[in-house]
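User: My advisor, Dr. K., asked me to get a structural model of this assembly before our group meeting. I'm new to this, so sorry if the format is off. These are the inputs:
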Amino acid sequence: MKFLPAKLERKFRRLKKHSRSSLTRKLDVMHESARKKVIEENCDAYKNQKQSEYECRKRPTKFPGGTRETFLSEGSFHQAVGRVLLVAEFFAMMPVKGVTAKHPGDLSFSWRNVRTCFCLVFIASSLANFGLSLFKVLNNPISFNSVKPIIFRGSVLLVLIVALRLAQQWPTLMMYWHEVEQGLPQYPSQVGKGQMGHTIRMVMLVGMMLSFAEHLLSMISAIHYARYCNSTSDPIKNYFLRTNDEIFYVTSYSTALALWGKFQNVYSTFIWNYMDMFVMIISIGLAAKFRQLNNDLRNFKGMHMAPSYWSERRIQYRNICVLCDKMDDAISLITMVSFSNNLYFICVQLLRSLNTMPSVAHAVYFYFSLIFLIGRTLAVSLYSASVHDESRLTLRYLRCVPKDSWCPEVKRFSEEVINDEVALSGMKFFHLTRKLVLSVAGTIVTYELVLIQFHEDNDLWDCNQSYYS
Amino acid sequence: MEGPALNARKTGPKRRHESLLRTLAQPANTVPKLADKTHLEFNVITSEKLPEYARLDIFHRAVYPFMFLAQCFAVMPLTGIREPNPRRVRFTYKSLPMVVTLTFIAAALMMELAMLKHLLQIGINAKNFVGLVFFGCVLIACVVFIRLARRWPPLIRYWTRTELVFTRAPYEMPKRNLYRRVQLAGMMIIGLSLGEHAMYQVSAILSYKRRVNLCSAAANITAVTNFEDYISLNYDYVFQWLPYSPIIASLILLINGACTFVWNYMDLFIMMVSKGLAYRFEQITARIRKLEHEEVAESTFIEIREHYVKMCELLEYVDSSMSSLILLSCVNNLYFVCYQLLNVFNKLRWPINYVYFWYSLLYLIGRTAFVFLTAADINEESKRGLGVLRRVSSKSWCVEVERLIFQMTTQTVALSGKKFYFLTRRLLFGMAGTIVTYELVLLQFDEPNRRKGLLPLCA
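Assistant: The format is fine. Below is the predicted structure of the whole assembly, which you can bring to the meeting.
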């Protein structure tokens, strides 16, 4: 702001300049240039330091794959489920190549692969084991409890065969899933992308740990049993005679057969648990897709949107429904086997709980396995029912559409959501919704009340009975 | 006219005169403190003065007496319930109600563990399991109520915000207002439950006295009946742990009474919430009924549908908060009804026992049915407007009517138990059928025990 006239201004300025002596002015200039040089040097040093740090980071670090790229995920189902399927492949289920690859286009199935051969060998061995079990059970009096080993091994065999067929279809299914995912509105943040993968990993981890604990407890309980029903003097031989009695019903004892029987048991237990985990994981994936769509609709709730927006969302919803149908066709048999299996085993175990337990180890193992069974059944039912629940949530956002944005597209969308029953099913006999959980619980109670009448207390801890559940 | 006429009611000439007198007698209302932003969100139009919550027909004012009574019995620890403004309701961990609740939970847990230890010694069977279930349910209910209390302040604020629109024209207040409805039903349940508890004590005391008199007459010794003996006999599982003293005895009686109250309060709470929600749906239906023979503009239907959607959203929010409580209450009622029905054909010793048994059985069945019917009322009320909507004349027909009909027919507007089942009339019918089926089977099991008859009196 000029508050002095121009002439006085100039005089004032000259006065200011003359206020400092030439020496101080020279010092100022030197100081200034020195300061600039120091800044530049520091700047260069700083730049060099940063450059070297960056190169340090870029160089291969102690952890291979420790770069940012490996931790970023696209949030796709194929990536989330990769490691889970890899673990299953070690247990001769679903022999698909390329499950841990980044893109589902790398998936392939071939009959000449090592994995497929291993799977076929294991199916043959399970078939032999099932045959032996059947032979033993048919040669003894049949009751509700005595068919337990047949049902166990039979369902494991069925699931193995279905999984082989599923492995053939898996590359096409994953490619279709990838297409549907690309079309959906994207996640707003990395946290959202990682959510589904995190849930899947947690479910798998908890499930596997609990089933491992249950298997350990069963081994301890079998060892106690072997001491109780000791037919020979060798405790290890007793143990194998107890747990693989269907093999030694027809042949005499040999170490190779015992090891084969043990290997068969461990793998069968894993597959029996993995059935439920697999259905849970597919349900989590499908429900996450519906949730992705619903979250986007929630952001625009009550706002005036163009008909093209609704048309786009309706088509995306339709795509997810078709995906759900395809997955349902692929895993329907597994779902049905899993549910029937759970129903039968809960009924049998509840019936056995009425007996007195021979020892504390038995009691601990028995109640742990019963609670694990009921918990796992409940978890499968609730996760698979979440697909149906999430698909219905869309209606909540459609009813808030204001009058001005109402168009035939929105009407068509809401009618579709209401009338179409989108849910996983068991061979289309029953649809997995929350109502089903209630009716299954009612069925179990009814069957128990009737079975308790036919219950006899003495024969369940019989030494001649097949132990393995 | 503002003020008391905020609840627009069809007033006759006499009533209008009275309300006029009332407004004149009031002091002039002060200017709303606009600087205080917290009040702004409750104003539908900011130029209006603050709603007087004490006079309004809102849910918070209807239920606060019962919630305060529950606080005295160590359930749902909230502060500021008695204030008219729902914003003052708060939940803090460091408050007196919370301390009382935690003390009660600790005491009930001790009684449950004592009973468990005692039963493990003498062997658990279906008959003595009921005590464990009773205390277990009460403890779980306390925890569920604490979690509900944590979510109650935002819930009641959202509720009041949504229902303020129903407190003014064109919505009319139904014949009995919400306060009176909740009071009537609540008083009935509390009165009957007090009667049941009193009769339980009377029956137990009389049986004890008669037994002591008869046994000592048979053994030729003098009869001694006193309070100490009675309590030690009835609550023997506690006195295995603790020594007897009159303080502990009265504490036990107090905790027992509080547990009975909590056991009843679960159902009372669900009934109050159901009545609150069904009341608003009834107002919507009444408004729709008024439009029957008139020519209605589309804007009216837009408004009605908007309010209906708001009520549905409120119901869903309340349902997500209360679902665990509803599930627990249903399981509780189902178990106790089945258990009591099992004893229907049992022989009892004295007439007072019969009187208590039948009163308690009928009270239990009546309470269960009443809570279910009240909750099913929400579903019924939400659909009652359909009859009128379908008869809307072609001139008034518009897209909004179609949307409203679609919504009413396709969506299940009801409370649920964690979305496993919806509380409708059909469910009550199904549950009754299931109970009868299970009873028929269970009564067969009990046949040999019943044939034994009464056990000898003086063991």
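One thing worth pointing out at the meeting: Chain A is about 70% helix and 0% strand.

User: Perfect, thanks a lot.
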